[in-house]
Write a structure and sequence with these properties.
This protein has 397 residues and is α/β, with parallel strands linked by helices. The protein contains nine helices and 14 strands. Strands 1-2-3-4-5-6-7 form a seven-stranded mixed sheet. Strands 8, 9, 10, 11, 12, 13 and 14 form a seven-stranded mixed sheet that branches. β1 and β2 form a beta hairpin. The protein is globular, with a radius of gyration of 26 Å.
Length: 397
Amino acid sequence: MEDATPKNSSTAETIRILEEVLRTRYNVATKLLDLSKLGEDPLLQQNGFFELGSTTSKMFPALMSVADKKFDTAQQKRDLIHSVSLGGNNLKSITPVTTLSITFPDLKNLSLEGNMIEDLKGLEGWRNRFRGLEQLVLSGNPVTALSNYKEEMIRRYPKLIMLDNVAVDSSQLQIGDSNKPRTVPIQNPSTAVGANGRPILPLPVKGNLLSSFFTQIDSNKDGVLAKFYTPESKFSISVNTSAPRVEAQQGERQYWDPYIPKSRNMKRIHDGMERLAQGPQEIRDMWNTLPATRHNLGVQELWSFDIFPVDISPGVPGVLATVHSEFEEMNSGSGSVIKRSFDRSFTLWTDGTGGIKVASDIMTVRSYAGATAWKVDPNAPVAVPPPAPAVAAPANP
């Protein structure tokens, strides 16, 4: 710690400053520790952390040392820190910040966006680290232009589901013998089905929903609105307070207070347009009144998708995409994190550039019910159609 202490500052004062930096850069709702653009941090600048090269190089390890002492157990770290951003720190390699993997080895999301990492060697220090990493962002670094960049990241981080805000489809990569992706044809949505008979989402819809919508809706609602919603887009939310719930939540208060005033229960409202938001501004205003959420894209079994072809209007084809899953919310009424189940129905169409747009977004929130509803039961009886009724023989003339 002494090496990281600026001139005219004691070790105790240095620790206090670093603790304050950590406090102001931690978002409790999203469990994000934002360590981006540290060189521009007013508190670090005012206290001379960047006046000498010796203190600059020692600052991040010291910051990690202070952070490590704030937690009593490794489990506490896992529970409270899911994401770290190191964007915009002018990093040419991860060497100055390699201690992050020691302090927070179980990160789910990591951003190195907007740095100056040119090659894979600059990431070598984390080759066998962050084995549970689910989302990685290196956009804005020259290394992303390498032909084997995507394949190498998937190999190093086997649980990766998002790379540079794009859903990872490891089936499209021939890892090992060839760097060339295999071509996967896009099937017609009305005929494409999986092994269990369920419809398969066309890749553009599935990729955009996974890579952009449900990863950004928790922290970048403006970005979601700008990409998917138009002045004609509509959004409504309803609360199903009587839906079945898991046994652990039986008898527990659900704290629906933030939702009830916006719930569009058609049996209780008189105006068809009441509680219906249209256009990005109205939708943003409604979203901003709802509790902060966190969706878990790391466990595929928690998600169920279905898609069906529909007509948005006469002559305008589209799709109806339904999503069933769960999220965690920071509930102000209970002062704690509450897990919810949700169903979301999107009516989607494509604009002239091929971009996916939302015509209608209907969301139902309910008590947490788990994901067993869409799990295939191998012991379920197979339905057998009844025999056709016998046809009486025609009478002899």
